[in-house]
Design a protein that fits this description.
Membrane topology (chain A): Multi-pass membrane protein
Largest sheet of chain B: 2 strands, antiparallel
Shape of chain A: globular
Keywords (chain B): Membrane, Transmembrane, Transmembrane helix
Structural class of chain B: mainly alpha
Largest sheet of chain A: none
Helix content of chain B: 55-70%
Number of helices of chain B: 5
CATH superfamily of chain A: Sodium/glucose cotransporter
Number of domains of chain A: 1
InterPro entries (chain B): DUF485 (IPR007436)
GO cellular component, one term (chain A): plasma membrane
Oligomer: heterodimer
Distance between the termini of chain B: 20 Å
Structural class of chain A: mainly alpha
Distance between the termini of chain A: 55 Å
CATH topology of chain A: Sodium/glucose cotransporter
Number of strands of chain B: 2
Pfam families (chain B): DUF485
Shape of chain B: elongated
Strand content of chain A: under 5%
Amino acid sequence: MTGANTAINLSVFGIFVLLTLYVVYRASTRNVSASDYYAAGSSFTGTQNGIALSGDFLSAASFLGISGAIAVNGYDGFMYSIGWVVAWLIGLMLISERLRNTGRFTMGDVMAFRMRQRPVRAAAANSTLVISLFYMIAQMAGAGGLMALLLDVHSKIGQAIIIAVVGIVMVLYVLVGGMKGTTWVQIIKAVLLLLTVSLLTIFLIGKFGFDFSSILDRAAQRSPLGEAVLSPGVKYGASDLSKIDFISLALALVLGTASLPHVLMRFYTVPNAREARKSVVWATWMMAIFYSCTLVIGFGAMALVGTDKINSAPGGENSAAPLLAFQVGGTVLLGIVCAVAFATILAVVAGLTLTASASFAHDVYANVIKHGEADPREEVRVARITAVCVGVLAIVGGIAANGQNVAFLVALAFALAASANLPTLLYSLFWKRFNTRGTLWSIYGGLTSCVLLIVFSPAISGSKSSVFPDADFAFFPLSNPGIVSIPLSFLAGFLGTIIGGEKADPAKQAEMEVRGLTGIGSGLR
Amino acid sequence: MTKALPSVSRPATPGFATFDEPHHSLLIDGDGEPDFDAIQTSDDFLDLKRRVKRFIVPATLLFLAWYVTFVLLSAYAAEFMSTPLFGTVNVGLTMGFLQIVTTVIITMAYARYSKRKLDPQVDKVRALVETDEELA
């Protein structure tokens, strides 16, 4: 790619960073109390938060990863899109409103509501930190890998510098803007991303005479796999084992989404349960449109760019969408798509940083260390320091993981969330007898089993695409552990509760159930 | 929005609350905090729970079953999923797209159901405790 191209990419990206930093700065004037920092004073409307929710959720993995997966694997790549749309129904019907009514700032608020505070909050914070960090390192590593393609930066040091810049900007967003500033960044980014993707889709469909079938036809002709890309099985159809892997992935996608900590925390930025519901309705619409577009963009890239060219490009699969943009709109469109991709990474990592810092400061510092009697100002100070630490960790991790297969890190985050958080949240919201021991067992059971299975999976060792291709300690055959670790965590929570420990507190249970459904006692209107 | 009517499940009270009449009828304990046990067993709250269940249980089972069917068919019935329907668009791609469509339909149906059947009932339950907060 040419030098002029790099200049365009850099300037569009630079404009985005400056614009958002200005917005963050303007939004930050009263950013002092804990509620402002963590939840933007709960002042956003359902519509605004719904757009921000999709901004938080649509990561680089969604945009570049999925269009690339479809462009290379066809049907099997489309699976991601479907899982991530359907998943919002769980968030809508089972989680969002009850979470808004029972908690204040973090996931730990809900899990610890009727349990012993310190151990449960510590567990919730552990799970939040592990999931956020994994997700964040994947995004940062993705940022580094993209640079090779987008800015023509090929040296490892150059990419490391760019990862560091991304990290510094995201920490700035969080420190200066808190939740309010970060939310505005998400809104701006979501609108940009959705506009770009829909215009590209409309253009592509128009180019093929408004006939989706002819896009598929062309795509199949250009793919070395031929018609097979339009059917299931290209990536996961090889053996019985790979089919189970496919099911495992599908489960993690649909169950993990609504229990990702940064998604959960978004529900606190609105004033009440009705607005929380409205946020999910908006987010679902945005996701439905976005992921439908990825289908057209993915097959469009296959048809116009060709699978071989995508595979041999510097960013591999991830380069499908940018290459397509270059093909149809030249350097300007490429610049825009690249800048939007950057913005996406930046915004998502900022959201994750905020979540991780809130969880540490609110759950660990204020409730575990200070026994719930921390000075709120001190708590926010701790949150800010944590944000810086998390930022540094993410930069270091991102540089270390640069060039690795990042898709598995993202899928791991989903599997972790589905294993550690979802069973615990559902039990504590819907099962009367659920107690402290059950909570700890389901969080730690899900978290550790999931991490261990990943460590001993082909994603880490024993195959060409693993992190350590030369070692082989992979005795667990699936690359996604969801199908084992999710049921295991449900079972652990169930067993922990019926085996013993203290009985569930009926008064607290009554309070949680009434409050969850009606908001009575929460002070929310 | 209409004001929620007083529930039939509690003793009749004068139409207006005055300062010399404490709200004995409300489900509030001695300190003015909501009495959650009493609310949890009140008819209005049980009715709210029934209404919530009536929608989310079947809807959740339905969408999960529909999604799992799609995943299993993709994994084990690739032949069937690749049957062409319109031009090159096959059963699998159509079903996948329909997953997105049904998600939007269920979402809108839930939003509508909540507005009509849940929110008014929530207001009713909240009216059991909220007279004071409303004045404040």
